[in-house]
User: Fold these one by one.
Assistant:
Number 1:
Amino acid sequence: MKVLNNKRGQALLELAVFGALILILFGYLLSYMQRLNDQQYVQMDTFRNALQMANYGAGDNKGSAIHFTKLENKRNVDLSGYYRKGAPQTNSASASVYWGVPESGTQVSTQSYYKINEDLSPDLSEGESVDDVASVSSTSFEESVIKQETPQSIKNIRVSSLRDTITTTLVDKNDNALWTVKQNLYRDANGDYKYSKTASEAPVVRSRTWETPF
Amino acid sequence: MNKRGQGTLETVMAFIIIIILVGGMVNIWFWFNNQMVKRQLQYNATRVSAGYGHDNYTEKVGWGAKPEQLTENQVLPR
């Protein structure tokens, strides 16, 4: 019973429990901020693209009515601790712009485009409209940690290999595919994770070495 | 064995770590606020150019803004 009456032990336990909760709360706040930040970029980018498309139509310099939707797959900071794996996140936004200043004697054309990551769909305004966006993701991740001890130093090497393929299909109300795009994960010049149909299926390999010399 | 001394030492260490943690979080929030201002300025500046003088709609408009990378140095300045 002495153990149960140990007030210091109780204080430690409470600190451990509430400390963990506070850390989770902080982590959630930061994740929320990251999502909000990316979402705002996508919304702004979508409207600017729609505005530009509406002005030029399909490259024929005619005013148009444009419906433009953008979907962006991201890999945000992952709190689970896997090395550079990232947590998948999808941001999307839509914008409709009616520019409507066609050349004299011509009709305003109405067009509908989807941009999935870096790939732009063809004009989908003809026929059935898009009823749903179906997305299938295939992810494989491997990680290894190597510790090398020599008389001169201790070296920790962490290597991860990530392969991610997302297949996005735009379907109409009858479940017919209107457009399908298969995109692979890659890293751009800034080192950011991106998805593109032109990227190879090779995994993205990341590694880092920590060395402590004696 | 001075148990009170040990408790004080642990508390001091824990507080230092907590302050660094909270400081890093505050810096991340500052970064987020700065991002909002930066992208709004670029967004306003590209409003007119989005409606002018490009040949086709796949060409990038002036809006080339994208989320900046948050670096370790921005979180914990050295």
Note: Chain B touches chain A at residues 21, 25, 28-29, 32, 35-36, 39, 43, 46-47, 50-52, 54-58, 61, 63, 65-67, 69 (CB under 8 Å).
Number 2:
Amino acid sequence: MNDMERRKFEDSFKDAFDQAEISPSESVWTNIELDLERAEGGKMKRRILFYKLLAAASVAFAMAVAGVGYYSLKNQPVMSGLQTANSNQQHSADEANQADTSGKASGEAENVNARNTTADTTPEIATTASNEKQSTINQAAATFDGNVQNQVASVRKSHAQQSSRSFNSSTDNVSLVERQGTFLPTGQDDTHQEAIVNHSVSEPTSITSVGVWNPTSIDQLPSKVKPTHSLTGEEQAAEVDPVAVLMAKLEQREKELRAEEAKENKKNNFSDERLWTSVGFAAGAFNAGSSEMSASATAFNTAANQQVTASGVTYSMGVSVGTRLSNRWVLQGGVNYQTQSSDYTANAVVGTSDLQEFYAASVNNADKVDNRILSSDPYSVNNSLRFVTVPMQAGYMVVNKQFGVQLNAGLSTDLFLQNTITPEGGSLDKTTQGRGEESPYRSVNFSGLFGTELTYKIGNHYRVAVNPGLRYPLNSIYKSDTGIDSAPLTFDVGLRFRYIFQP
Amino acid sequence: MKNGRIIGYMLSENELIDGCRKGDRAFQKALYERYCRKMMVVCSRYSKSTAEAEDVLQEAFVKVFQSIAGFRQEAKLETWITRIMVNTALNAQRKKLYLFPMVDVEEINLPEEEISIANIHVNQLLDMIRALPQGCQIVFNLFAIEGYSHKEIAEQLGISEGTSKSQFSRAKSLLQQRLLKESTYYERYGEAKI
């Protein structure tokens, strides 16, 4: 086979496939559509995320204006809610005491006997709620205290005895009495117990002839078991079954506690907070007392020394992102814009060689010292430093409920932006020193961070936080060749607004 | 505009491209309908099974729709789509080639007789190509059908030019042996096996 034939062989394959067609299955297009929609959905998600962040930032700005006032208002209902819970418990106890009193009125002798059966009946009450969280139910039982349990036992006992007495009186009552009489001593399952209670509550007329009951305690009954019409003492007693009444009360209280617990759980559900972003600002003060300058005491150096040792105020604002590493541990990082401002008194000015321009004496003019230094009357100078800080902190959530307490510690990378020296009085020009080789300031600095974060959750997506914290520079912001060592300790309090991304 | 198949044949290439650039699903379907069968052949040549070919076809068409905004129409649309198909297929095969790298193979003496494929159905030819060893299949497709030089193939697959040549020779001889058997069968029984 020569080369031409070989070429022909390859071309024949090319030609054979040139016009060939094979139909792919229908599912291919469906899958392509799905892939395209998924890709478009991703773009849309990113767009939505952007708008969410924008919305969160906007709300944060509004919160910054009215945050503190809103916060205090928001905290008040929590306290009053706690008080309400306490008063409810107190009220329940009072009710139980009153019930106890009325129980005594109905029959002292029977009550004495009934007290002996408290130990037997109390587990029944606990068992009633054992399908739910035990602690809550125990709390429910405890709310009624021994008085209530005694009363329950007392009424049950008397009811059981009276039931047997009234056995022959009415055939309608027999079945009900038998059911209740069987139920109480043997402690049957919850379903049966509830069924009886519900039956008693929903059909009060069916238990009219069961037991004797003191009508004076009717005012303390839940409304649903109160008779709807006015009756005389004996008629009222015949109208409501005390066992049913107390069981209904127990059930009512149990329901309330369960509802409260469910509400609390819902509020405290921290597990859905996995990723959040926050915006915020902070204000504080720094103390540069430990700063020092190793130089002779000239007028210039005195001014520069005052500059580096001056204390002042600091402000910062920025955004951050946080994520939960585990149940308690979180990691937070962000970007902030920070200014540090202080005032010092200078008694020298620095002039250009031709003495045409003068500047306030500051560390920035250190390289101009050889030119012209002139003593002057003392004047005030504002020294302002600006940084972009990139903090990275690990946090431990001490309390992770609706109200949260978090301890944070970490490191911040502080990128120096510029220093502005503003002499007061207007006779000297403002000067600005940026970063770079000629700058006396280090471009990159590191600070240790430690702080706490007190948070409060508002709704599903938002949480506001107040975070007092300390910042300690790990290096001097001035370059080592300036001979200045300045590491001001900063204390600030920040207000942050978190937006929580729901999974 | 719901039925891509109907509008696909009524639209010009430029209209199709413009519609796809806007992300219009009907135009995308029209473009797919127009080229899917031809492209299925391309993908099948580089694959060992229909399912594998369909996977490549799907992935490649998604790339087509995602990158059609950058298509500058310097080449024909079909050529551009074919190139995407081939590249996607090669990407899929590269993973396998990483595990089983191509090496130089011994040349097989080619049959001296002239062998024609005129009577062989394209499906049979496809089966023959698919039956080739992985490396031979890719190199044969790229060299004989796509028209790449051995140098280009070597660069694209990260192999030496010699390896590309030896793989092609082996592919060709294997195909010729197979064709020889088929033509003998045809001479005996008078029809091709389809």
Note: The first strand of chain A starts at residue 275 and ends at 287.
